[in-house]
Structures are given as structure tokens and as C-alpha cells.
UniProtKB/TrEMBL annotation:
Residues 25-88, 89-149 form the SLH domain. This is Glucosaminidase. GO terms for molecular function: amidase activity. PANTHER family: OUTER MEMBRANE PROTEIN ALPHA, OUTER MEMBRANE PROTEIN ALPHA-RELATED. InterPro entries: Cell_Envelope_Struct_Comp (IPR051465), MGlyc_endo_b_GlcNAc-like_dom (IPR002901), SLH_dom (IPR001119). PROSITE patterns: SLH. Keywords: Signal. The keyword Transcription does not apply. It comes from Bacillus cereus.
Amino acid sequence: LDRFLDRASATKIMTKVLGIKIESNAKPSFTDSQNHWATPYIAAAEKAGIVKGEGNGIFNPSGKVTRAAMATMLVNAYKLQSTANHNEQVRFEDLKGHWGEKHANILIDLKISNGTENGWQPNRFITRAEAAQLTAKTDMLQQNLNDEKEITTATSYEDLNLTVASKITAQEIDSFIAKYHSDSPLVGHGQDFINAQNQYGVSAHYLAAHAILESGYGKSEIAYQKHNLFGLRAYDGDPFKYAKYLPSYGDSIAYNANYVRERYLEESGMYYNGSTLTGMNVKYASDKGWAKKIAGIMERIKPFRVEDYTYAKKLPKNPETLDVDALSNEIPYKMYADGSSSNVVSSATYYQVPYPFNLKIKSRPDVAVEENKVGTVTPGTTIFIYREDPNGWVEFSFEANGEKYWTLKNKLSM
């Protein structure tokens, strides 16, 4: 196979790349291309305005393609004239006054083609490898330009499309949470927000801000005991009872991302009013200032910059649906056999509710926040144990079947 590209082969490449319909019986106007293997391709390319003849009704299908001719084909095929940056400065002396100067300069402007120390060499025959490289670069550029046009640049987090990838890292999320609440259970879970973004197509930055607002940095009782960061099914009548239990914070973030994308951020979603915080606010929260609060936290985590999202791409929607209603609202306790006991090995604080933070206790309205912490158990004390929760708290009593409290398992000989 000749290493240099001929005009017939170049024409076939162009029609294939552009997806132009080929009619097997079509004929071009060129007299020398009526019974050639590339006849239908030449006819299609001529009709599309990609190729022209060499004059006198001749196409010269076997003729070698010069670099200038290839540039002309690419510019015409991809309609690149309008996307080039016009610069009147002469780049290469050997292009000055050449018939292919305009088209070659467009490829140079778009960084599709570079010259050499010997000029741009418009009259040199182009190799098949060079032609393939130029075509691939042009095609990629055109795809990027088309993709960019689909995204409207936001001016703030409030009007940012929540289905585009955020410009944030797991470390940035973790650092922000640790800075303001070093005791937050969410510290170290930054990667879970990134994973949910990648898997379910919702901004990790938004998910982190929403979790912080909804769960008080992961320190609300529902968030801590049920790993439910977003209040899924936490109905007003008895929010702790009805709130769904999630095995981990990562699961909670994933379920919320899937739920929000499907119902609030897709045009087909039942609560869709635009894929932004402002759009979500219409149906998601009765608080009219909800979107501003989320956007404010996002701004504190990482200030908004227009350039971060100018060319952001929309994330694909995961076709899988995570069924929130299939989740249980019961915490899965590990039960100990009747009469089980353990020894306290290090000084242990004990509580009425297995919850160490100073936010409202919803599981037991009879227990005030300041009354939850009861006292300290000294090492060497023998206690009776009943059950263990997923966070490592053990329910115990000082006497068999006596009043029950909670302390951490790591303080016991277990």
C-alpha cells in the first residue's frame, strides 16, 4: 500500500468519519470517476461540498493529496472557518499567497496542525499516517466544541447544573469538615461523595454541602445512629422512628444522589423544576432559603469560579434505581445471650442514648441533651450486657435486668 494518500482514499475517509450516507449507484459529475472503486464516495463528497475537481471536469482520483489539499478538505468537511481565531500575522512564508493559505491557517489557529523549521510545506504530499492524525484531531476538536455548547455557564452555585462534575477533591471536603467540626463522623468520608458523583451523576460538591446542612456535619442523632445524612423518610410525626437505616455513610450518599438525580434533576422526574439548587428548592424544601443555604456552604468549601465550569460536561445518569422504600427503618442490633456480662477495662463514659453529641435527641423525647451523659464507669467493674449497635455501643446494666445504659465496646473486655 502506497504510504502517500491518494484523492480517492482521502474522500472515502472523509465520508466515513462524517457519517455521510453513501448511495451505491450514485455518480459524481467528474468524467474520470464514473467507474472507479471510490465512485459512490466521490459522488457523496461532491454533493456534500467536501471535494472539488481539478478543472475540466476531472477529479483525478489516483492523484496524490498535498498538505494544502488535505487542509482544504478538513476545513470544508467540518466547516471550521467560523471557529478559527482570525490572525492576520503571516505564520509561514511558504504559505504566503498560496491557494491553500486560508485553510492551512485555520488548522494552525485551531492547533490541529503545526509546521516545521522548514515551513508548512503546503505542496508536499501527505502520508496516510499524517492524514489519519489530522482527521482524528479535527474530529476530536469538533466533538469538544459541540459538547461545550450544551453547557450554559453558571454565575454562582445557585444556578449551577448539579449534573455536571464538580471541581472538588475528597481531600478538600474532608479538610473543610475537619476545620469546623474535627469530631464530625463525616471526616474521612470525602471520597464517598466523589464516588456517588461518579456512579450516580450528581455533583459531589453539592452532596457534601447538603449532607452538612441536613445532618449538622453528620452529628444529628438520625445521621449518627442510622447513617441517614439526608433525612430519607424522616417524617415529622416521629422522624427518628420513620427515618431509613443505611449500613454506611457511603450508602446514604449514594441513595440520596440516585434519588435526587431521578426525581429532581431529570426533565422526566416527578419534581423537576430545573437541574439547579434553585430548581430543586421549588419541591424539595418548604424553606424558600434552602438553595441559598446549600450554595453558601458550597462557597465556603470552595469559592465559585466561572472558569471551573465553563467547559464542564454533564454526567451520565445511572440507569439503576436504588429503592429507598425497600430499606428498613430498624437499626440492626447484635443481641447477646441472656445473662451475658463483661468487665470494664478502661474508664468509660456511659449514656442513656448511644449518641455522643449535643444535638436534639429524637429517639427519646424524654431525654434532654444535657441529661444524656450519665457518668463514668471505673475499670474493673462487671456489667451485664444486652445488645450492640452498628457504631460499637453496648447496652448494659449494673445489675441483672436493671436500668439500662450505653457505653462504647472498646472500653470493655470483649
